[in-house]
Structure formats: C-alpha cells, structure tokens
# Entry
Amino acid sequence: MAAGLDNAGQFITLKAVPRPREELARHGVDPCGPVAGVQVCLATPITSDDYVAGQRWRDATVRGCPWHRQGGCGFSRHGTYPRVRPPGALIACWYCPLERRTVSALPDCLASHYSGTLVDLEAMVLAVERARSLPAAVDALRTDIELPGALRYLRRLCQAVHDALGIVRGLQPARFAGVPLTLQGFAAALPGCLSGLVALRALASQYLSLLPTPLGFDPARQNAAGLSPAFQHRMGPDPPLAILDAPA
Ligand SMILES: [Zn+2]
# Structure
C-alpha cells in the first residue's frame, strides 16, 4: 500500500498493483528539495532500487555552477535531502553563495516534484489510458480514498504527462511525428525501453526545464532561477551537468 498527500493536501492511500521490481508510487507532491533550489538531471540509467541500494547520491557530481560557468563563486556540495519515496533515497545538493540558491541532482529514475519513481507514475498513466474511463481506472487501481480525490490526482497527473509528450513531440518531430499523445503511443515508438518516461527523461534532457513535472523540472521554477535549457544538456557537444562517478 502507498500513501501520500495530493496537490490539495488531501491524504491519499493506494493499494499497489503487483509489478516487478518497483513499488507503486506514494502519490502526491514531494517536497523535492529546498524552496530556493533548482533541479538538474543526474544522467544515469540506473534504477531507483540500485540508486538507493548503492547510495549513489554519494557519487553524484555537478560539473560547476549553473549560473557561473567560469567558476570562482564558491559553488560547493551542500549535503542531501530525503525523498519521501522511494524509501531511503537521498538527493545530492550543491549551493552557490553568490546566487544564494541550491542545485539538486535528480537521477533519471525519479519523478520531479511528485513522490516516487517515473516507473510508478507511468503505471498510473497507462492504467488510465487502458481503462474505459477515469473512474474505471481508479477502481482498477483499488484506490482507498474517496473517488473525487483519486480522480483529481489522476487527472492532473495524466494531463501533465500528456502535455509533456506533446512538447517532446514538437521538439523532436523527426522521431515522434505522428505518434499519438499517449504513453502507450510513445512506448511503441521507443521499442526496447523498459519505461517510456525514463527513456524520455534521457532523450529530452536538453529540454527538461521546459517540460512540466513529473517528467520535466517545473518551467516556472527553473525560469525564475535563471536557468536556461542549455544548462540541462546531456546530449550534443555539452556533457551532462550532473553525472554519477564510479562507486568509491
Ligand atoms: Zn555560482
């Protein structure tokens, strides 16, 4: 069973649908770090299980300050903060004393500003897409909370994910033109990927500051912090801003 708070602060409890390796999400908005902070993608294909078991936040490295690429600002490691889910997961943080903001390195497996993993949330969205109706999806997911709260949560989640898919399709038309704006459609266009959302987090890493959560990093917050999409680069000539070093 999983539980959490939805966007309206309503307590949500969901029973897990059996799936390999990953638990069902603890649903709702995750604290996801300091208020004044921004997220960057920690480029890694590892699963959340491996991230937690290996305490891989210890191996995270951010290649310099996002605001002062020339250095000299005192940008340095600033501890960690815990995720609600998956249990035991910590997120590595850095701090720029000149910008007075923190940077947190979110591994590709974890959802941004939602509790849980992208795999967790993908299972939710796929359940909705495959159900004959949203209430039917809630019923299939064996939601313990009152129907209105579950409907609200799933509706918002699906809208955010489908909005992100539309942006990705527009940004990468050569790859996704004609693909239906559903996770099922994108999964079909990404054969061999265990998770469509995790694959898209990597494929769209240049644009994460433009994409809504849980796939992207909350455009309003990133823009307010003065982070341009260029700082999210993983592919192309620029190396990823945050990487995992080999375990010590
Ligand atoms: Zn700085």
Observations:
- The chain has one domain: 2-239.
- The pocket of zinc ion is lined by residues 65, 67-68, 73, 75, 96, 98-99 (CB under 6 Å).
